[in-house]
Structures are given as structure tokens and as C-alpha cells.
Amino acid sequence: MTPHTHRRPLQAVLFDMDGTLVDTERLWWEAVEQVAGRPLTETDQPDVLGRPVEHTAAWLAADTGRTAPDLAADLHREFAARVRTGIVPRPGALELLDALAAAGVPTALVTASPRAVADVVLDALGAHRFAASVTADDTARTKPAPDPYLAACRALGVEAAGCVAVEDTETGVASAEAAGCAVLAVPSLAPIGAAPGRTVRESLAGVTVEKLCAMVAPELRVMSWNLWLGGSPVDDHRAKQLKAVLESGADVVGLQETGGTAAQELAEALGWHHHRAGENLGVISRHPITARFGDPDVGFYGAAGVRIAVAPGREVDVWTAHLHYTPYGPYESVFDGLPAAELIAHEEVRLAQMRDTLERIADSAAEGVPVVLVGDFNCPSHLDWPDVTWPVTLAAEQAGFADSYRAAHPDPAAAPGHTWSPIHPVHEDGSGRPEPQDRIDYVLHRGLTVLDAHTLVTGTARPWPDVAGNDWPSDHAAVVTTFALSPR
């Protein structure tokens, strides 16, 4: 299987300097206290933290009667003296810069300090660590205006929506968010509240490139799996199901044929969240479930959905569907020789079930929330059969859903993606006829970006009826798709 390659969604990381990369906020606070001639209090923070020298000088001028230029000169002198002798990198700062360099992610320094001070800090940190730097001297407006971060993006040739800004003050956060960056806030002296598109941490220690990537375009790995009567035909099936889910790396799994209790039992064993619908459908998710959709007492065939919180302010709806298995189109085509028109006409039951599913999805949809529809549709795709316009998958496409497997593997001849059936090489009627292999399990989506999609069967699946000892506890292959949520 050839993975679907993709460009890293994180284009650059833009670092504030004072209080973020180096512990200079306290040095600046001490310098302002020295020039002000008095201790500063919490009420002074909005005019001191994250502000350019000129702003703080003008603020002091109103209290002291001295001129702003004289005060600015004193502030420069006092602060620079402290920086030269007392600069200390913040915990995790150098390690993160090195990790970004190793991953090929460019970085920039974006500060409200003047160039003279920034250059002292750059020398201490290593100017080679940064592809660009923007200071208070480089833009007409500085923080909280978006200008410094927009200037850094222009210098790096990147889009703000593909960048993470790392800040320690409300002023800096306001600047980065106004520019359109995702923000990692690491407060130094004053607290910073959580908000959509913003992550707040106590320290840069433990921050990884992967975590920053997820802030820009969070990834979500979705698995569709028919458990085959809950897995009961296979010995020790629950343990084997758990192993398969863990090895898949899935974040959320849409289940069919759960045997009633599989969703709850799997979720409890994994420490995940779950939704059970009727005796056949379920969803398990490592992310919190914030809403549940569809008939909770749905029959053996039908659909059920959940809304999951993937990241702060980022939700995705995930639906699982199971459609009726008869009449089965591949049998009618291969064994009975029915023409395309009759094959299409015989899809009426499944088409009605798909339309009902699509209506339920439309009724529960929320603006800006992507939707994933997975399931065992028990029918082929119109994307795979050049001579048969299978109406069930076409109806989903007309409702705006894209087929993730075909997005990653456009050529059905080169990558058929068969999910029926790893344990049925021959038809089970005893005739010895080869079983038609086909793709009848799907991960469809609306509003996401496909990074990778593949089918999954672990171990060597022995054919029916000698299946009790199989490692793979199902008669279907699973489908696993990794999505990226679009940058904000």
C-alpha cells in the first residue's frame, strides 16, 4: 500500500521574545520600576507588559512630568543593561527551536522591543535559529495591531492561517490573532484566558512540532468497521478488536454490527467516549462527544451520529450507517449477469436508507462543522464501476460528500480498496465460485482535507468457516482515513 503524501500544514512558528523565549518580562518590569521611581502594581500591567518602549514612556510622562523621549532613552538603557547580564531562556524554548529546525519549519522573532534590544537577545539565543525578525522599528504600528505578525509572514513567504504564534501577554495574543495566526499562549506575569483557536500552556517544555501542527490544522483519524455480529464468530474477539483499534491509531471509530454492547465495552477499555444506537450501531471516540444525533433506538439498518470536540473551538460530526445487504449488486452482476439498469433499480431500499441518513445529517448540521459519514453500505461505488452508476454513493456525492479513499487513491484499478471480504475468497454456497471482491465500506466526508486513506486487516485471515482463531475478528476490512481540519 502506498501512503498518500501531503505537505505539512504548519508553515512557520512566530515567536514573541520578551517573556516567551527569554525571561525578560521581569527585567523590563524592573527597568520600568527604576525609571518610574516607584513599585509597579497589577493596575500598571496594561501599560507595561507587551507594550513598545514608546507607549510605556508616554504613559510615564503623564505621571512624572518628564518628556517621553527622555523616559524612552532611560528605559532603553536600563532594560538593555539588564538583558546583557540577566537573560535566561524560558524552559523548553531552545529545545523547541531546535526541534522546529530539525523538522524544517521556519521560525521568526516578532517583538515589540526595539531592534537594538532584539539583536542582543538574538545574539544570546543564536541568530541562526531564526529566518526573520520583526521589531518595533520595522512596522508603523506594533502590538496589539496585527502589523508585526503580518510583516513576519511576508518575510517568510507564508500565510498567517498556516502559522502558530507563541505569546506570553494579552497584547501579543491580540496582535497574533488579529493577523489570523493560531496562538500558543504561555503566560509569564499575567494570566491569559482560553479562547477558540488558542491554546494556553504553563510552559514551552513538552511542546512538540506535532502539537503545533495540530493547532494549525488538527488531524483526525477516522475508522469505519463492521464488527461482524459483534465479533462473536472469532475467539477472544473483544481483545482482538481493542488491539486493532489501537494499532490503527484511530481517534474515532464508526461501528456497525456491534452486537449491542461492543461500543460501550470498547470505549470503557480504551478510556474513550461512546454513543450506542440500537443493537447494531455505535461510535467510540478518544475526543469528547458533545452531542448525539439520530434515533437512539434505530433498528439493525439505519444511521447514528455524534459531534466530537477535536480541539478548542474545533468540532466534527461523525455518522455511522449500515444499509441493507439484499439484494447484493455484485452477486447480481457476476452470478446473474444483470445489466446496469436492473442493478441500479434494485438499489431502491438502500437508496431510501441513504436518503434518510442524509436528511438526518442535514437536520443536525451546524455551520462551519465538517461532517464524516462512515459505514457498511453493502453496495459498490459509482467511482469504481465505469459501467454502473451506483445510486447510493452517488446520492452521497450529490449531497456534498467526497470519498476519502478515492481522494487518496484515484485509480480503482491500481488500488481497488476491497473491503468485502478478507475471509471469503470463494462463495459460501459450496459451489467453489470465486467470491466477488468489492469496496462496500466507506469513509466519506464534507469539509475536511484527506491526508491518507487505507484499508486495514491485521494478521492472516483464514477463510470461512475456519475463522475462530483469526487475528482479524471480522468478515470486512476496515477503512481508516486521516483528515486535516482546515486552518482557521
- Number of helices in the DSSP assignment: 16
For the secondary structure, the number of strands is 18
Roughly how many Å apart are the termini? 32 Å
Decide which structural class fits the backbone: alpha/beta
Reported for the largest beta sheet, the result is:
6 strands, parallel
Quick structural summary:
With 488 residues, the chain is of the alpha/beta class.
What can you tell me about this protein's structure?
The chain is α/β, with parallel strands linked by helices and 488 residues long. It is built from 16 helices and 18 strands. Strands 3-2-1-4-5-6 form a six-stranded parallel beta sheet. A six-stranded mixed beta sheet has the order 9-10-8-7-18-17. It has a six-stranded mixed beta sheet with strand order 11-12-13-14-16-15. Helix 1 crosses helix 4 (68-86). It is elongated and about 100 Å long.
Please write out the topology:
Elements: E1 12-15, H1 25-36, H2 45-48, H3 53-64, H4 68-86, H5 93-102, E2 107-110, H6 115-125, E3 132-134, H7 147-156, E4 163-167, H8 170-179, E5 182-185, E6 198-200, H9 209-216, E7 219-226, H10 237-248, E8 252-256, H11 262-270, E9 273-277, E10 281-285, E11 289-293, E12 302-311, E13 314-322, H12 329-334, H13 340-345, H14 348-364, E14 371-376, H15 391-398, E15 402-403, H16 404-408, E16 441-446, E17 449-456, E18 478-484
Parallel strand pairs: 1-2, 1-4, 2-3, 4-5, 5-6, 7-8, 13-14
Antiparallel strand pairs: 7-18, 8-10, 9-10, 11-12, 12-13, 14-16, 15-16, 17-18
Identify the notable features of this structure and list them briefly.
20% strand, 16 helices, six-stranded mixed β-sheet, 488 residues, six-stranded parallel β-sheet
